Amino acid sequence: MTSKGERRRQAVLTAAVQVLLEQGPTALTHREVATRAGCSLSATTYYFASLSDLVTAAGTQIVARWAEQAERVADRLEAAAPQHTRISAAVEAVLPEPDQVRGHYEHLAGAGRSEAVAAAYAAGRARVDAAVERITGPIGLDAELVVAVIDGAAITALSEGQDPATLARDLLARTLVTVGG
């Protein structure tokens, strides 16, 4: 593929990611993506043979970004970091930027309606869990439990007008005490 072709393909994929994040999988159509990407409808089908291919690629890119964020946080954490630092790092690794938290969780709540998105997220989740395990494993917290606590805290905080990161840190600290860490 030429560099122009690769740029066009990336523009189509970027538009698909935006639609998926903003409106969910049911709103992702070749026509909507073409409009956002500023290209012809035929360009979207040239680079992605089916809508399922496009949705899968968009979902794969979203979960890759999430995993990269978690890995960056884990990479900069020192081996001897104290518990409170590890808890804060886990929250930073899992939650998006504060202005994106609501959209992130609204998107995740609907993502399972699309088999392609759900499969992409399930496949990429191992990277997120591995990074979170590097962060919280040394203090005795399982990565899947950590992500579940942070996700639950975010939903609770959003529904009650609280700060998701603060509530997630507080609940993780309580979880650590409960599991005997």
Number of strands: 0
Low-confidence stretches: none
CATH architecture: Orthogonal Bundle
Per the CATH scheme, the topology name is: Tetracycline Repressor, domain 2
What is the radius of gyration computed over CA atoms, rounded to a whole number of angstroms? 18 Å
Element pattern in H and E: HHHHHHHHH
Helical run tally: 9
Keywords, separated by commas or semicolons:
single chain; mainly alpha; 77% helix
What does this structure look like?
The structure is a single chain. Helix 5 (83-94) packs antiparallel against helix 7 (115-136). The mean pLDDT is 92. By secondary structure, this protein is mainly alpha-helical. The chain has nine helices and no strands. The chain has one domain: Tetracycline Repressor, domain 2.
Question: What layout of secondary structure does this protein have?
Answer:
Elements: H1 3-23, H2 30-37, H3 41-47, H4 51-76, H5 83-94, H6 101-111, H7 115-136, H8 143-160, H9 164-178
Helix pairs in contact: 1-2, 1-4, 1-6, 2-3, 4-5, 4-7, 5-7, 5-9, 7-8, 8-9
In a few lines, what is going on in this structure?
This protein is mainly α and 181 residues long. 77% of the residues lie in helices and 0% in strands. The radius of gyration is 18 Å and the shape is elongated.
